[in-house]
Design brief:
This protein is α/β, with parallel strands linked by helices. It has two domains: about 190 residues, SPOUT methyltransferase, trefoil knot domain (Alpha/beta knot), CATH 3.40.1280; about 60 residues, Orthogonal Bundle (Trp Operon Repressor, Chain A), CATH 1.10.1270.20. The protein is about 30% helix and about 15% strand. It is built from eight helices and ten strands. Helix 3 crosses helix 5 and helix 7 packs across helix 8. The chain binds S-adenosylmethionine. The site of S-adenosylmethionine has 19 residues, from strand 6. This is tRNA (guanine-N(1)-)-methyltransferase. It is found in: Cytoplasm.
Length: about 270
Amino acid sequence: MTDASEKAPQQGRSHGRLKVQVTAVPRDLMEEPRRVKGAWEARIVTLFPEAFPGVLGLSLTGKALDQGLWRLETLDLRSFGEGKHRNVDDTPAGGGAGMVLRADVVDRALRQAMAGAPMDRGRWPVVYLSPRGRRFDQAQARAWAAAEGVTILCGRFEGVDQRVLDHWDIEEVSLGDFVLTGGEIAAQAMIDATVRLLPDVLGNAASTEEESFSDGLLEHPQYTRPAVWEGREIPPVLMSGHHGEIEKWRRAQREELTQARRPDLWAKRQGT
Ligand SMILES: C[S@@+](CC[C@H](N)C(=O)[O-])C[C@H]1O[C@@H](n2cnc3c(N)ncnc32)[C@H](O)[C@@H]1O
C-alpha cells in the first residue's frame, strides 16, 4: 500500500460555513472555519469540489461545520491530472462506452488525501462511492462517526481503474440500487448521516436514539398542532399526557410499521 505520509496536503480546500452577512468590503466567501482539536474530518477526492459543502453547509451540519465540530476538506482530482490539460481519464481498456478515471491520477490524489491520516481503516475508513458497493446504512454511519475521519473518492464517467482500488484496498460503498452521475451527492448524504451522530452536533441527543433504525425499527408517526386538520385528529393518546401510554402506543406503531414496510428489518430484529 502507498505510504500516505510521503506528501503534505497542498491542494486541499477546507470548507467553513458560507457567511451571508452584507458587507461593503469584498472578501472571500469561503473562510477558514474554526478548528476544534481532534474534530471528525471528511476528506473528499472529487472532480467537482465546488459541489461542497452543498447541503452540508446548511442547518445543523452547517452550524457544526462553522463551529469546528467537524471538518471538510476537498481535493480537486483535476489538479492531479496528467500534462498541460490535466487529463484525469482515458478510454476503457477492451473498448466500450465512456471514460475511466486513471489509476495514476487517482493514486496521487489519494496519497495527498491520506497525508497524516491513520492507515488503520477502523480509525479512518477509505471508501470509493460506487453502485457496486455495500449499501450504506445507519450502522455504517455509526462506525464512521466513531472513527477519526473518512476519505471518500467520488467517481465520475464509467468509474475508476480497478487497479488503484485494489492497490489501496478501498471499500466500495453504495447509496442504493440506482446509478448516479457522480459520487458527490452520495458523499453528502453519507456525511450528513454521519455528522448528525457526532457528539454535540444535535442539540437533543435523544432524537437520534428514537429515530428510524436506531434499534432496528422504523420511527412512529409524528404529529403537531393544529389538533384537528382537514377533519383529521391527532391520535387522542398523544394528547392524553400519559407518558407510559404514549410510549406504549409509539412502540406498537414502530413495530407495526416495520413489519408492514420492512419485513427484512423485522426478520433481522426477530433473529437477534
Ligand atoms: C455513472 S456512475 C458509474 C457507474 C458504473 N459504470 C457502473 O455501472 O457501476 C459514475 C460515478 O457515480 C458514482 N455513483 C453512481 N451511482 C452511485 C451509487 N448508487 N452510490 C454511490 N455512488 C454512485 C460512483 O462514484 C461512480 O463512479
